[in-house]
Amino acid sequence: xxxxxxxxxxxxxxxxxxxxxxxxxxxxxxxxxxxxxxxxxxxxxxxxxxxxxxxxxxxxxxxxxxxxxxxxxxxxxxxxxxxxxxxxxxxxxxxx
Length: 96
Description:
The protein is mainly α. It has helices spanning 9-16, 22-43, 74-78; strands at 84-85, 88-89.
């Protein structure tokens, strides 16, 4: 595994808004490096002429019909919001 492909665990945990112990960071770092290594191994496969798929088997009629159901009031929609302003949910900026 090359160092340039190493994932910055502190930055990733901050984006995910989770607190990790040093032991958890070490374990997660190893697991993510292993996943990246596996993806790099998959990139070596010759996929010329292979059509991209989302499922290993064909899937038909997977969408259910849309049904109109009762609406949420503004109060109900905002009830569990951690922060709100002017009838909107306030979220922290996640893009620099």
